[in-house]
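Suppose you are handed a protein chain with no further information: no name, no annotation, nothing but its sequence. What can you learn? This example shows the usual starting point.
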Amino acid sequence: AKKPTMLREEEAWVSELREAGYDPEHLARRPAPAPASTDDLSVQRIASRALDRCAAAESAWTRHTVQEHATEIITEAGVRGTSAELRELIAVATTLALQDCFSILPPDAAAPEHVAHLTSLRVVQVETELRDLITARAPEQEPEHGDVREHAAALGQRLDSGQLEAAAAVASSDPLVVVEGAAGAGKTTMLATAIRAAEQRGGRVRVVAPTKRAAEVAHQELGVPAESVASLAYAHGWRWNSDGVWTRLAIGDTDPATGATYIGPPRDARLRRDERIVVDEAGMLDQDTALALFTVAAETG
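A reasonable first move is to predict its three-dimensional structure. Written in structure tokens, the prediction is:
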């Protein structure tokens, strides 16, 4: 009944909503905030937040991306003014933000407006930290892996040679394993064999994914618990604000979101040494989430 033609259908909608707990007659409406003027905002603050949003979304951007975020921040603040005043505020904030950007292109290269070539020191810093953590786990030579064909057979899986090789690598004790393959190559499928092989040798595997939805898919396909990388990072004290800026709570700190004292990760989120963390769809991870994951892995061994 998405296209109501009779009043009774609309009445049925309202009844269904009320049964679900939504009653429009008893909603608490928030008072509209008083409009702000262009003088009420810090231009430097707008510029800084615009760059934060740029860095949270991508590693490189254009001038227009910075201007878009600056405009959104001004709009969210409820600023009222003439067209000229608003244009000037947006232009000044954008110019200030661009002063803290630098181009990733060679000095003599042309930089068309539509090419994303601007970045910030924050992005480079996170990338450097992430690269160092990954490099520290890369084996100096290609290791040899065991045979997992019996585990695939026990699960009724018919894996090709590439899947068997990948499953053996994931099931090994290598500190870092990266499995690449095209969509539909059976990467998630082979994880069931890898998990069984790892557990048979006494290992423990934790499956995570970039999003809750992807974690649910992994759980359905593999039949093992799975969670989002963000939930694991959150349990270990990481927090992020609406602009995408990540910080971390130390034990004893007050959680700004809940007001409670952070006492460390709960029991089910604690990692033990040599536990294998499998990130399904790892290519979807953003920089900050990946850095949090590798930092936690480094701390816990």
